[in-house]
Amino acid sequence: xxxxxxxxASPSAKSTRNRHGLMGSLRIATxxxxxxxxxxxxxSPVMARAAQSQADLSxxxxxxxxxxxxxxxxxxxxxKNADYIPALAKVDSKIFGIALVTADGRVFTVGDIKSExxxxxxxxxxxxxxxxxxxxxxxxxxxxxxxxxxxRFNSIVSIEQSQKALGGLGEMxxxxxxxxxxxxxxxxxxxxxxxxxxxxxxxxxxxxxxLSVDQEVFKSEADTNQRNQAIGALMYAYGFIKNDWPRAxxxxxxxxxxxxxxxxxxxxxxxxxxAGLNPVTGKQVMKPANVPEVLAIMAxxxxxxxxxxWLFSTGLPAKSGVGGGLIAxxxxxxxxxxxxxxxxxxxxxxxxxxxxAAVSNALGGNPYEVAAVAKKR
Length: 377
Prior knowledge:
By secondary structure, this protein is an alpha+beta fold. It has one domain (11-363): Beta-lactamase (3-Layer(aba) Sandwich), CATH 3.40.710. 45% of the residues lie in helices and 9% in strands. It has helices at 11-20, 45-55, 59-73, 86-89, 122-134, 137-143, 157-161, 177-185, 192-207, 215-223, 226-237, 245-256, 262-273, 291-301, 307-314, 350-363; strands spanning 97-102, 107-111, 117-118, 212-213, 258-260, 318-320, 325-330, 334-339. It has a 5-stranded antiparallel beta sheet with strand order 2-1-8-7-6. Helix 1 (11-20) crosses helix 16 (350-363), helix 5 crosses helix 6 (137-143) and helix 8 packs across helix 11 (226-237). It starts with 10 loop residues before the first helix and ends in a 14-residue tail after the last helix.
């Protein structure tokens, strides 16, 4: 469990975290995502914080929040690299960088923003978004679903339980492997090459620059993806995937190996925060009407088994990847990303969770914290 302590935080960061009821300066007591909730004064400090946050997204406030979070988290030692994909075990575990891009296109960074890692499950968000663009959010919900499974991201049991005819609960979503592989199978194209170019170009439009595949990671994953092959075959057997499940698995494996740095990921998150308009390039990447459904699924299923704990503590739609990346969205305000490869038991970057929570708390990023509207007299 992750607990927080404000004893060494800056005065502004300390006051906002105390208002939110988080105790501690990002000192980890144990690793999981539990936040210690404190008492709330009758004068409603959350409302005061919400009002303040609307007024202060100044350059100085943002950079100070990033610098403080970086300083507080950089020496955290908990977690370890994913090793079930051999190439990920070799990634430098000391990489740590934070990037934030506002909805009006301002860019802020601290730490290592040059090193790239494979985006892994973060890719699921943007393939899901592409299918929504090509078809509709309804097509995703009806073919795959929008419910958290309550199981591991690569669970085969969850596929069985998604079958109501077999007594299951019908729960599936595009951010676990069965749903994600199905989403990849739904991308339009007459050939593998055409489908792949559509996916990679869409990702690149979100990032604001051409992205590429880490071929070493792709090969490493392709050599060890027997479980995903089984998932693909089972999703085909149950009618989720309509044809050529091996191609869907292969393309899904390649999309997970796309390489990005912290700034790329923050720009992708900021594009979602800005109603699908890339705030850096000015390109409308996806329809504004489709963004809320993307954010809703990120909110409920973005951090594997700890999605509920994350949403409870931050309120931010987010998505993690076992490569060490984590993106989060404060709708209408900013996108933020952190890269730090060591993961907790749920598969989420330890440092990234702590850093994003700290920055969001300092800047009032939680969309559920709002100022009350005075009654008209």
